[in-house]
Write a structure and sequence with these properties.
575 residues; globular; alpha+beta; 6-stranded mixed sheet; 9 helices; 31 strands; single chain
Length: 575
């Protein structure tokens, strides 16, 4: 037998074994005789009251879980699709952290008519052995579980496909209605952990008031506070209860705080990683039942500037005259808005800040300058002025440093939106602070290594593209920003100095499209004249990339996220 055939039969045997195990795990579940819970309106809902010939979909949801928000309306659509065929959909909120008021708001926000029940004490969640929100269970006429797992495969943690590739729950419903075995009886539910009541008596010296609040204040609260981009707040002890398992998971997987630079290369002023000691403290605290401690030991809460974080801007420029409508679901193409700021004379900019008008749906903002005579779509002619991504900081230049922009330049707003379950409007904007020409002492220069001529073959899981920047004079490097799209896998900046030595300036081994991060050097780095800064981008255009729009496509340069880009942005001043 050839190696190819052996591998094929081995994979087939493995698939059959896994499928058999999943079918047995679901089929051997005990039938559910009954459960009764109050709805968000205070009326009891009982499983026993559902007609015996109906199927029942039990969906565990949470009001603040991003995936549950996206799938709330999807469940409503499934109820509409199957209600005339004897299917009942019911939602259950078992999160200890979700109040009745929050559940009512969730129902109203997503226009739900399916009953949403409150599972106080996690009793029914424990009965189902449910773990995540959202997670669904399909009960047949005998009230046996025939399917459990995800609703479909469109939305992942922090990522989304243009459309679902498999409607897992809908397919299972069809198969049960037709009297067939469910072809895929179990899938992996992806989402937030259900916030359960702690069964551990709080104990130990590691307390929220003494140690844990300081960690959250330093690393989390900037985004996890009211009105900011994070889906839930972490500003008090009560806020954290119920989120502890999710918090430990995202930390263990290095998803939070968002930082992707290899610590072996370079030091950065905005490095937000947790230390090993901080991780151990959090793990110990959760294992010990999360004691609150003495509130008198609480640190002073961090203060955040309301409104502009730069000095009062001299000019505020909106992305367009009209608001853009962000749909409730799906993938939104990059939106581009060209604005003429009316600059009839050269400008020298000393502070910039991009601000999303509607924080929950703005993934990132990049504003480019297009000098007069350059085509708007010419990637080589434009350069980045200011950007925004969750957690990013505005740019404030000191000591007479300024960004020059020639008269007659236009601005292009590149807007990336992420739907969050309900249709919303946005009209984002930027603020600029100007400096008089006679006060300018140094120019902040922008450089980039860019390649627009690449082709990424279909199915390639490790395709590299390179570009370089050559320093025309001695320069001080301040900041590095890699930029790719959905197939981006890794990115590296490497300096090749005139004396023959080399140095890795920034290595991002696991690029994350969700976080368009700027990496600000802890200290400016001298780059001698003639230095070549080589940028190497790696792409995954295979099926193993879960958000790959089309693994069968040859991918080339383009503005939209299903195309690709290869840019290494750099910021310099004169030494």
């Amino acid at each position: 037998m050839t190696a190819h055939l052996f591998r094929f039969f081995f994979q087939l045997l493995s698939l059959l074994i896994v499928t058999s195990v999943l079918q047995n795990s679901v089929a051997n579940a005990e039938p559910f005789q009954n459960f009764m819970l109050p709805t968000h309106r205070g009326v009891n809902w009982s499983l026993s009251e559902v007609p015996a010939d109906h199927l029942v979909v039990v969906a565990f949801l949470g009001t603040e879980c991003p995936l549950a928000r996206l799938y709330g309306q999807r469940l409503q659509e499934l109820q509409t699709e199957f209600q005339d065929r004897g299917v009942v959909v019911v939602g259950i909120d078992a999160n200890v952290q979700d109040s009745l008021t929050e559940i009512i708001a969730f129902v109203a926000r997503h226009h739900l008519t399916i009953p949403i029940l409150k599972d106080t004490g996690n009793r029914v969640a424990d009965q189902f052995e449910a773990e995540r929100t959202p997670e669904v269970f399909l009960l047949d006429q005998n009230r046996e579980i025939r399917y459990r797992g995800r609703i479909d495969d469109q939305y992942l943690v922090g990522l989304s496909r243009e459309a679902e590739q498999r409607r897992d729950l809908a397919i299972a419903i069809e198969e049960v209605l037709d009297g067939r075995e469910v072809s895929v009886p179990e899938t992996k539910a992806i989402g937030c952990h259900i916030g359960r009541i702690s069964r551990v008596e709080p104990q130990g010296d590691v307390t929220y008031s003494n140690q844990i609040a300081r960690i959250f204040n330093q690393h989390c609260v900037e985004c996890h506070r009211a009105g900011e981009v994070a889906p839930f707040v972490l500003t008090s002890y009560e806020d954290i209860l119920g989120w502890e398992e999710t918090i430990l998971e995202v930390i263990a997987e290095n998803r939070m705080p968002p930082w992707f630079a290899n610590p072996e290369h370079g030091k950065f002023a905005n490095d937000c990683r947790l230390s090993d000691q901080e991780k151990t403290l959090l793990e110990t605290w959760v294992q010990n039942g999360m004691p609150e401690g003495d509130p008198a030991e609480l640190p002073e809460p961090p203060e955040f500037v309301k409104g502009w974080r730069i000095p009062e801007p001299d000019q505020v420029i909106a992305m367009s005259d009209d608001e853009f409508s962000v749909p409730a679901q799906g993938v939104v193409d990059y939106q581009y808005f060209t604005v003429d700021p009316g600059w009839t004379e050269d400008k020298y900019i000393c502070a910039t800040e991009a601000r999303p008008d509607n924080i929950p749906v703005v993934h990132h903002i990049v504003v480019y300058v297009v000098p007069p005579g350059s085509e708007e779509k010419n990637a080589h002619g434009r350069y980045m002025l200011v950007g925004y991504a969750p957690g990013s900081l505005p740019q404030i230049l000191n000591d007479g440093v300024a960004i020059p922009v020639v008269a007659g330049s236009k601005l292009i707003f590149e807007m990336h939106y992420t739907p969050n379950g309900r249709e919303q409007l946005d009209r984002s904007y930027i603020g600029l602070k100007f400096m008089k020409k006679q006060d300018v002492k140094k120019i902040l220069g922008g450089g980039h290594a860019i390649n627009t001529k690449f082709e990424i073959p279909p199915g390639a899981d490790h395709h590299t593209v390179t570009a370089e920047y050559r320093s025309p004079r001695d320069q001080l490097l301040l900041q590095l920003t890699p930029h790719m799209h959905l197939r981006g896998k890794a990115f590296r900046f490497e300096a090749n100095y005139p004396d023959g030595s080399k140095e890795i300036l920034l290595d991002v081994p696991h690029y994350n499209f969700n976080w368009q991060l700027n990496y600000k050097l802890a200290e400016p780095k001298r780059i001698p004249k003639g230095t070549r800064i080589l940028c190497t981008a790696t792409y995954n255009n295979s099926e193993s990339n879960l958000v790959n729009p089309d693994p069968t496509a040859t991918v080339r340069w383009g503005d939209q996220s299903w195309n690709e880009m290869m840019i290494g942005f750099m910021s310099f001043v004169e030494p």
